[in-house]
Q: What sequence folds into this?
């Protein structure tokens, strides 16, 4: 580790002393992205190189922080998604169980009928009840699904907005 600092300093000195003029297009692009880079036109000076390296380091640090924020949001979204889908699955299972019990009640009632009219009345009553349960529970599950989608998409949309804002700014800003 102790030998690394002199080696880095030697490499930096060699790089600065052997630097060639940058092509015009590269210089213009670099100057636009990092304003401090403008001093590096022609042959690179030590102060200009140091400024450019500091700006590149700051940009890398900003990128790392932004990436860490993205990872945290994705972990939060994954947790929210898992919890939400478990809740919706429980609701669906409970609904299926209730519908099965309703069907068994209908079958029990039909087993004791004495006439065809009585069977038709029982069947109509239980079919209507089953349809009401299906409509009611489907609406509840659909509402829970929409709420989950909103909970998951909200943080992701915020990160996308932040990324778009950052894309519009120069790296050194």
A:
């Amino acid at each position: 580790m102790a030998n690394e600092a002199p080696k880095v300093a030697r490499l930096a000195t060699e790089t600065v002393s052997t630097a060639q003029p940058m092509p015009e297009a590269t210089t213009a692009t670099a100057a636009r992205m990092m304003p401090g880079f403008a001093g590096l036109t022609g042959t690179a000076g030590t102060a200009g190189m140091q400024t450019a390296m500091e700006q590149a380091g700051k940009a890398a640090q900003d990128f790392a922080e932004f990436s860490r924020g993205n990872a945290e949001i994705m972990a939060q979204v994954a947790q929210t998604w898992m919890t939400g889908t478990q809740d919706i699955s429980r609701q669906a299972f409970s609904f299926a169980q209730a519908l099965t019990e309703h069907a068994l009640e209908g079958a029990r009632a039909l087993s004791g009928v004495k006439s065809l009219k009585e069977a038709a009345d029982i069947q109509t009553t239980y079919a209507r009840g089953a349809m009401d349960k299906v409509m009611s529970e489907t609406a509840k599950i659909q509402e829970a699904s929409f709420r989950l989608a909103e909970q998951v998409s909200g943080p992701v949309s915020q990160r996308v907005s932040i990324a778009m804002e950052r894309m519009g700014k120069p790296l050194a800003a």
